[in-house]
Amino acid sequence: MSKKIVGLIGMGLMGQAFIKNLTQSQIHVQGYDTDKTRMDQLRKSGGTPLDSPHKVGENVDIVITSLPNSNISREVFFGKNGLADKKYKDLIICDTTTSRPEDSELIASELKEYGIHFIDTAVSGTSAMAEEGDLVIIAGGEKNIFNKSLETLNSFSRASYYMGPSGSGARTKLIINLIL
Q: 9-26: per-residue pLDDT in tens?
């Protein structure tokens, strides 16, 4: 049986924790980051660095994005060498970026035109918690797509919750942050 492969775009502190936990779950990570040091870290952990966000979508069912904000997410999806491509029909993107709910809703709608599924999978927890696999995921999108993603999401979190349609994960994270 071949090893499962997951794509990852954005390998900062949170992304590095994802790599550690995915690798421990016997999942191979292929990824991209604009920071060469992060790409070298992926290689040293046994993963495969790639030269563009577009290539990260090859030969995977799921791509996780962990980016600074939704403007950068938009560039990764729709910019030059971006992930949005009809050849990636049925690809699932789990976006852990802290985004505005309305941006998540719009991105989901636009990616749907390519046949790509988008789940705003906001994470609640710090990078130290992520390192320990102690994150909570709060997700918005299509429930059947969330269910297909659960095994991967649970490889780097302690719990994953479906909150409703696109934007619901991002919206719930904002509420949690306000309460905390």
A: 999 999 999 999 999 999
